[in-house]
Amino acid sequence: MIHSLFLINCSGDIFLEKHWKSVVSQSVCDYFFEAQEKAADVENVPPVISTPHHYLISIYRDKLFFVSVIQTEVPPLFVIEFLHRVADTFQDYFGECSEAAIKDNVVIVYELLEEMLDNGFPLATESNILKELIKPPTILRSVVNSITGSSNVGDTLPTGQLSNIPWRRAGVKYTNNEAYFDVIEEIDAIIDKSGSTVFAEIQGVIDACIKLSGMPDLSLSFMNPRLLDDVSFHPCIRFKRWESERVLSFIPPDGNFRLISYRVSSQNLVAIPVYVKHNISFKENSSCGRFDITIGPKQNMGKTVEGITVTVHMPKVVLNMNLTPTQGSYTFDPVTKVLTWDIGKITPQKLPSLKGLVNLQSGAPKPEENPSLNIQFKIQQLAISGLKVNRLDMYGEKYKPFKGVKYITKAGKFQVRT
Amino acid sequence: MTDSKYFTTTKKGEIFELKAELNSDKKEKKKEAVKKVIASMTVGKDVSALFPDVVNCMQTDNLELKKLVYLYLMNYAKSQPDMAIMAVNTFVKDCEDPNPLIRALAVRTMGCIRVDKITEYLCEPLRKCLKDEDPYVRKTAAVCVAKLHDINAQLVEDQGFLDTLKDLISDSNPMVVANAVAALSEIAESHPSSNLLDLNPQSINKLLTALNECTEWGQIFILDCLANYMPKDDREAQSICERVTPRLSHANSAVVLSAVKVLMKFMEMLSKDLDYYSTLLKKLAPPLVTLLSAEPELQYVALRNINLIVQKRPEILKHEMKVFFVKYNDPIYVKLEKLDIMIRLASQANIAQVLAELKEYATEVDVDFVRKAVRAIGRCAIKVEQSAERCVSTLLDLIQTKVNYVVQEAIVVIKDIFRKYPNKYESVIATLCENLDSLDEPEARAAMIWIVGEYAERIDNADELLESFLEGFHDESTQVQLQLLTAIVKLFLKKPTETQELVQQVLSLATQDSDNPDLRDRGYIYWRLLSTDPVAAKEVVLAEKPLISEETDLIEPTLLDELICYIGTLASVYHKPPSAFVEGSRGVVHKSLPPRTGSSESAESPETAPTGAPPSEQPAVIPAQGDLLGDLLNLDLGPPVSGPPLTTAPVQMGAVDLLGGGLDSLMGDESEGMGGANFAAPPAGTMPANLGAPLGGGLGDLFDLAGGVGTLSGSYVAPKAVWLPAMKAKGLEISGTFSRQVGSISMDLLLTNKALQVMSDFAIQFNRNSFGLAPAAPLQVHAPLSPNQTVEISLPLNTVGSVMKMDPLNNLQVAVKNNIDVFYFSTLYPLHILFVEDGKMERQMFLATWKDIPNENEAQFQIKDCPLNAEAVSSKLQGSNIFTIAKRNVEGQDMLYQSLKLTNGIWVLAELRVQPGNPTFTLSLKCRAPEVSQHVYQAYETILKN
What we know:
A: alpha+beta; Immunoglobulin-like; 17% helix; B: alpha+beta; 5-stranded antiparallel β-sheet
């Protein structure tokens, strides 16, 4: 099972270590640093590294490396999932998962890590339970604590620990009972030079914010549940109900959580809401090139496409770019060679374009590869897959909650080859 | 207000300040102080000096304070075991607390204090907690058993905790079940032979019920445990599959992958005609694809596993090619894995798409990725015949880019394409030759040379091209050199008239100027072939080559089947069975897929169908390498002895009668009393054999060498003598000597092969002897011994073998076996190799013993012609563990009183009279076992005279 955890920042300092079994020397991290040196980019450090006596399994989150040490055969996914859960918990407790936040709350961090694993076995990883055991820090609480001398560790057994619904705490009470669902869909796509789709799929999630008193039992149904054929559920969802009736039936955790995530695969036709016309060319034996892109709406179901940003990693030989945008603003970082064009909304009457000259290093050969365009956008009030919530019913409690569903479509990994 | 304030007080006297605060009466101050201590601890500062003060804060009703103290305890108890006992009482008390949270906390912390002394106090509280009424305490206690097992396995077994843990599998609470399974699995991993998790249909049913209700982590443990079960028939397999399938929709990817493992394994038992089988196949695809939308680290592990799954059952993902298309901002480790899977999934149906993608990748920035993409194009050509033409033209396009590494990779793969489709694409050779000069990597150069040699008849200037490579022959890597040699020989056979000079040049380069044996051997073979029978040479060298197979990179099927059983584990990431890399390889159990059962057959004739053998019965335990060697020896030299061979264990009388007649005739009258010659098998364990194999050079040199080395340190070593002449042993000559260095005895052997055939499979055994000498390790000759080769081996000996009094006392009968026969010889070992390092007796003791031993046990000897003085004698003898205890001068004579001890504990006392100017010494020996005296005297003589 998980032996130890080291937290390492980008400059290679080990700023926290936690051992759940015997102490493993920090020097084991040298193998990690070695691998890190080999990988050109921090993101390219391989997640599983073997050393003569241990295995190092690491994740890279929020500019921090979470490096765990294991000694026996343990499912690596289990370790990686757990590490992400640790990062999520820090995020949840401190608002951000950063070196500063962790150092500022080092005792809470230690208490949390101790509570999350016992001898390397996960103990309590649900945020609802953890929060009952160890109260998150707030300015108010620390003031109150220092006056009254009370502690931020709960002294009763969290009710959820052993019940059949370990994700929910008991005795929840709200004056305003509300249940909100966000249907968020991201389009992952690769568009080739000619504008045809090489690959596209939709990654969707339904995030919930539930603030309901007591033990509500909810049922969420869809107009077109058939779209959902590849779904991952939060443990609260009753799988049998879904299998037989295609209804999401569950007793929700309290607060924010991800209800389901789903994938609408490339077999179904995925609508692509924008198109790009591009002309990027470099002349042979001259130190300049032309750059011209135009973006237009397409298959956007009548909604406005907004928040558009285009990011381009230009080839290394590019020195500078002299461009004129018809809309929005652009920046070019000559060090990282990243061009960012912030466009905003598209108005179909006047399509935004970015044109101009590219200055290349003189004497350098013409770049082989043409850069890929990475596009970000947002469409409010639309789930691009067409998924629609039909109704939400509540059983088990008498009050009438506020209910709301919001749809949003975003670009995920949306790239256009040129 | 943040915790960083705890780090700020780094001034002098910090520990002192903390101490004061810890002993403060105010609770709040105490707590703050403990927090400061913890904060220092987390950054690696040593605050162990505060141990007693922190432990004093333990008796509190403030839970946070208690937890903090516990945190501290876990960290420092190991370094302060005596202090840790102070905490025991509080633990025992806390285990009885009415609050289950505190009971659980106490039992949890106790187990983390890795101090042996504490463990015994732990047993009673733990026993209670395992039967606690509160499931939260029980589940914590279950894990505690695993912790305790880690510290003291014997204790856990003696106390019967393992049985209690097994009972918890039937607990009413799913979390308790999950933790019990987890704990048992962890314990079982360190005891592969133990039958801890013997699963039967009832316990499986319980696990499946618990599976639905426990946490995600518990589900992983249970699924991994289920995967080890062997269902008794296909119906049971199907019903388990049905109950596991819902886990595929879990949000936790580790749960999903563990479920995939169970399904992949049990599917093996289902008949392919079943509707359920195809339903299951369909259900497996979406969750696998979903794993690819997770974080990159998860994707990586998932991809490594998918790689196995598509090899085992390509049908699952055959329509999902597109999800493996590479995004330019994927981390490199994800990109490479995706590429690999794309090739595995490539088929006639999707090859156009795949090729277009690969071509796109080949223009990316990342060099490693581009290389792999180019290589992938070649693999596609080999895998999908219809696409070969397009692949080749794509590769040619890429060569035109003139990007150096792209060109080189392309040439390497084109070589493979030629091998797969001979006489089809040779028209491109001209293009390839244009790029000859830009090749700087050995693999690409070798590939190009191969092409030139293979198609020499179509390339007009082949000889010029190859000649140009020949100029820098010695700077090339071996791969290129070998290829160049072969290519030129091919060229010669095709165009003999123009290239005679060239071939002679390369042959002489390879055979005379090279240090590489492979190259030399290949050179000689060609040379002899060409000089004896050019026609045969043509047939051999230009023989039709077998086509290269479609998928040379596939994992070998039996390994694949084993790896499928390890889906989701590290083994699946490394694509190696755990036995190949798990630390210490404590005898890892091999897993295998269940055999497929015909649905009708299994129901009616249970005895013919493979009935559900418990997993522990079926797999064989692979012994460690040392054991294997020991076993090998046993197998070869006698009937197998069960269990690992032990030198002390008496082997069945007469069972190993290989000395029998052989020795009788060899020894003549000494054969009496040898009854069933009884050899103890050498013990397990390996030792590095000394493999300095001097090729040429007379044996005489070696003698000198050995002698020289011998005097450097340790006791005197006699020069090697021939023990077994080649005539008597079908060409095997053995010479050797004995040495003793820093407490270990070894037999230094020189094995010379004077026969014409290669010798291998060496093994050695000793007959029982007076002092129980036995090999401490098998005879290790790493490589077969070729004719005229000599190998020098130092065989470590110990003295724990069987004892039988020999005549003469120091006679040792040895049997050596090789692939040809078993040979026997006997030798006399000098007794001083048995003189131990702690043979120095105390003066008083010496006097008492001397008096105590009866006078008839005294023996007197003369040592003649020894010109040394008393000091020199004394120091020389000391080198061989004969210790001078006292020296007296009596009437102008030096009397040295000396003692020595033999390995079997026999003391020998000596009085050595040295008269200045007289080269003859008188030696009186007293010993309770007077038989040894004669040999001790001989030892004296050899030591003093050399």
